[in-house]
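Justification of resources, computational component.

The compute hours requested in this renewal are based largely on the per-chain cost of generating structure records like the one below. Each record pairs the submitted sequence with a full structure-token output. That output is archived, and it is also reused by downstream analysis tasks.
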Amino acid sequence: MFLRRRQSQNPQEIDSGEREAKVNELRTALGLLSGRSSKFCTDACLRRYLEARNWNVDKARKMLQETLKWRATYKPEEIRWHEVAHEGETGKVSRANFHDLQGRTVLIMRPGKQNTASGEGNVRHLVYLLENSILNLAEGQEQMTWLIDFTGWTLSTNISIKTIRDIIYVFQNHYPERLAFAILYNPPKFFESIWKAIRYFLDPKTSEKVKFIYANNKESVEFMKSIFDVENLSREFGGKATLDYDHEEFSRLMAQDDVKTAKFWDFDQEKPYPITSRHSKAEVAPVPS
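The structure output for this chain reads:
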């Protein structure tokens, strides 16, 4: 189930006309879709799955059908913030209040703020934020950037390899071509051994998107400037902003986004829920429009 997928060393390059033909071929191969499956399978979605499988229609079809089965069972679009808010109390994963220079949603991850031992809870919390990040992409943008801050991270705060493996499996198989970069900011030396284990589960294309960035390295600093506006980026990532995570405020913003999600998927939003008054520090998301 978790075997690393091999990719062709020299994927065949095809022009835009051939790509559109393959999108149409894939849509025909999927057959009649209805409800949320139909809404999910936009042309852009089909292109992402084709890209993930080097434009092999049969492989893309199988991958997408597995995703549709997963979504029908897991129902990621039905997860609501109040169900996963306890996982986010420390701000270990949150949506930033800015996009990167390409209009990509930025997810801030702080593994040093890990607060639960629940593997399923961690996966469900991240799936919620993935869906939320996609909902808040700038127009015409389909990818997101992960910014991972290792401040305070130790082996005792690390989640299990099984949970990491489960997260990788869900992301690679059900959110293909959604990641632009995963930026590992100032990882400690001993992370290298863990990275070797994590890398085993990554396909080569995803692995290439993982960037090790160090604050005192000139090339790293230039890379960050090429991805982010330093005026928006917080100081811990080499920027100029000071941003604090307020769990109560973030919860209010996520509740507003839950209404937005319900409207997008055409089902009624649940009744409002009480928001706790616990606080911690990290980036907070903007009020959705």
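The longest strand covers residues 93-99. Residues 1-10, 269-289 have pLDDT under 50 and may be disordered.
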